[in-house]
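re: that chain from earlier
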Amino acid sequence: MPGGPLIEVADDGQGIPADELALAASRHATSKLVLSDDLFHIRTLGFRGEALASIGSVSQMTITSRVESAKEGARLRVNGGISERVEKVGAPVGTVVRVENLFYNVPARLKFLKTDVTERRAIDSLVTRYALAYPTVRFKVTDGKQVTLQTAGDGDRRAILAALYGVDVAKQMLEVMAAEEGMTLSGFISPVSLTRSNRREITFFINGRWVQEISLNSALLQAYHTLLMVGRYPLTALFLDMAPEDVDVNVHPTKAEVRFRSQDKVFSFVQRSARKALLAYTPVPAVSPQLWGRRAVPSQPREVGIDWSIGHDEQLSVDSDQLSVGSEQSSVDGGKLPIANYQPAFSTGVPLLRLIGQIGATYLVAEGPDGLYLIDQHAAHERVLFEKLMAQHESKTIPSQSLLAPEIVTLPPQAAKALTGQLPFLNHFGFEVEEFGANTFQVRAMPVLFSGGDPAAALRALVEDFEEDESPLQAEVEARLAARVCKRLAVKAGQALTSEEQRSLLNDLEACQSPRTCPHGRPTMIHLTVDMLERQFGRRGAR
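^ sequence. v structure.
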């Protein structure tokens, strides 16, 4: 268990001869370097020979190993850097390294270890990435209770993607294969329809080593330029192979950052290769003929994924000729309100509005007694869903609706652990979610408020934005989770709404207690006053 009693790593490789076991725990003894020039031709993951010695100096480490030619294995114990005598034991071919009581002799370092859950997620994140980089190696990860990752080792990277993200995601991934001037780039990138809210799923390997290089991330994002919404990022696993002398991996203690001899050439190669794959596999979206010219309003409201009538109180319906100027507009603080404090400390209501229509399949246009209002339909619907869900939460009456067929969702190991800790809150909000195997969950019911929404999107919304060190107050946890789910299930920009849906959304927004911002603080509307319009058209001089 990370940060606790035991961390164990086992392999079925060649093993270590018994007479070399003590040497393996000595500093620099396992160095891969023979000549000083080897520093500029590094192809191995490690080369200094300090790993085992460093681990043994701050833990109680046991190394057990056997080579194929030996009839018995050997075991070496190292306590706080002091090695004991090598003893003979029975063991299979390969090596097992057990690390117990990590940092037991360095209390100042021990107190900075994070929680077991956080440390496990870090391990899962590292191993899953290397499982993608070395598909011919079979990986198996357990946390003492269940298997969190297991790969076949058959060389099929797409099968590993399916194990990590689910079959549907693996099928959508686009393969990248490019070569140019001694460099090759292979792996997978996601289409523009498959994105994440952060950069954590952008993975780059250089000559088999996982790196976190800003220039490579920038090159990849440049390939998606104008294709993704702001704040959305692709899911990628790319492997760059190049001459070792053209890249320096010895610039950071963790070797996570690198320096290129010709950075511009590498940047251009990655950007063009990823862009070419996107253009080759991503079809050009077809524009519906209904978007051209005037289209008739359908007799039946069209399904858009959300039942607008559910939880909708009766609203006052007014004609444009009867619109009264009864409410005075109040100022809005430009700061970002805490999510949990969705009850405003001051009046932020809006006057009764008359719907004019929708523009760009993204914004609603409405007329008020004091000017024109432009309303972001996604942010507005996000606010409506959030306040309805929190109101039901306070009254402890969140109705749920069983799905006709349970939805199966597969997540990466680190995301699955994050979601497991949030299941009680999720079930409290009307979801019925249960674990369904390793890193897999089954959604059996959803809140009635989200009827027609995507259960898989709701689950992924909970873990995409989850910060590793995020520790909100207990009173804020439920509101944060509710805000994430509402953000994912709200109507999206570019989604055409019928007149009935537009009017229902506008009425619901008017009834909200904080209608001017979404739960994350983004404005839901822009107000253009009559005075501002008159000055823009030259009907009134500047004051």
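The chain has three domains: 6-113, 173-281, 307-318+335-543.
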